[in-house]
Design goal:
With 273 residues, the chain is α/β, with parallel strands linked by helices. It contains eleven helices and eight strands. The structure holds 3-methyl-2-oxobutanoic acid.
Length: 273
């Protein structure tokens, strides 16, 4: 049972997400990469489940999000979509699938939608992917933008540090945010930028912003599930709030199981046929 009470069981749509900003209701987004976790976070009542390319880190053990492929994202996406009864499911378009030929980007987004049953896609970047976004939107696919620390560009940035701390980059981010809204994106993720800037962008836009490491002035928040539950142990950036310590609990529970197997205590008479 969730500690949060969901007001209704209606499927969350882009219209509702936009309305939440108008109503001043904060949006809760979280990642998931499989059916079981998707079912649980859906039951808990999040509005959006993001099949983030952070799957590359937390599911595959890669250092960056660069190695994950379109077909792998589709497998994760399919299983998440099956578990989400109420929440909207968004899928990250992975590295190398939308920054070249915009028509290929459109084909890749269509493939994601057709093969996963998701409700939309998320793309990292601003003016440099304008045509790709236009074509994906023209195909009728909802798009969530993503600005600030866009992890697919980590090699270009030279690390995972705060973005848009300098005026020139902050101004570009504001222009890109306006452009994404004008093109028709229904929401925008802002990652690891100064809280003051995130609030300015949020106040200026009609579409909702969803922050991660961007302070409390955005219209919603997103966290990586494995980070906030303490499964991805050792990853403790300043912006992360740990809601559980499942990593320790899992190691402890499996240790108890091993002890029971080795001592012959498991299974007992009630646990056999
Ligand atoms: O891949 C991801 O999980 C993300 C969120 C951190 C926004 O893009």
């Amino acid at each position: 049972m969730s500690s949060y009470t969901v007001s209704d069981n209606k499927k969350v749509t882009t219209k509702r997400i936009r309305q939440m900003k108008a109503d001043g209701e904060k949006i809760a987004m979280i990642t998931a990469y499989d059916y079981s976790m998707s079912s649980l976070v859906d039951e808990a009542g999040v509005e959006i489940i993001l099949v983030g390319d952070s799957a590359s880190n937390v599911m595959q053990g890669n250092f960056t999000t660069v190695p994950i492929t379109l077909d792998e994202m589709i497998v994760y996406g399919k299983t998440v979509a099956r578990g989400a009864k109420r929440a909207m499911v968004l899928i990250d378009m992975p590295f190398g699938t939308y920054k070249g030929d915009p028509y290929e980007a459109q084909r890749n987004a269509i493939k994601i939608m057709q093969q996963t049953g998701a409700d939309g896609v998320k793309l990292e970047g601003g003016s440099e992917i304008r045509e790709a976004i236009e074509l994906i939107l023209r195909a009728g696919i909802p798009v969530c933008g993503h600005l600030g620390l866009t992890p697919q560009s980590v090699y270009q940035f030279g690390g995972f540090s705060l973005r848009a701390g300098e005026e020139a980059e902050a101004e570009k981010l504001k222009r890109d945010a306006r452009m994404l809204q004008d093109l028709g994106c229904f929401c925008l993720v802002l990652e690891k930028i100064p809280a003051v800037l995130a609030k300015q962008v949020t106040d200026e836009l009609q579409i909702p912003t969803i922050g991660i490491g961007a302070g409390n002035g955005t219209n919603g928040q997103v966290l990586v599930l494995h980070d906030m539950l303490g499964i991805n142990r050792g990853f403790k950036p300043k912006f992360l709030r740990l809601y559980d310590n499942l990593g320790d609990q899992i190691v402890n529970s499996v240790g108890n199981y091993i002890n029971d197997v080795k001592s012959g205590d498991f299974p007992n008479e009630k646990e056999q046929y």
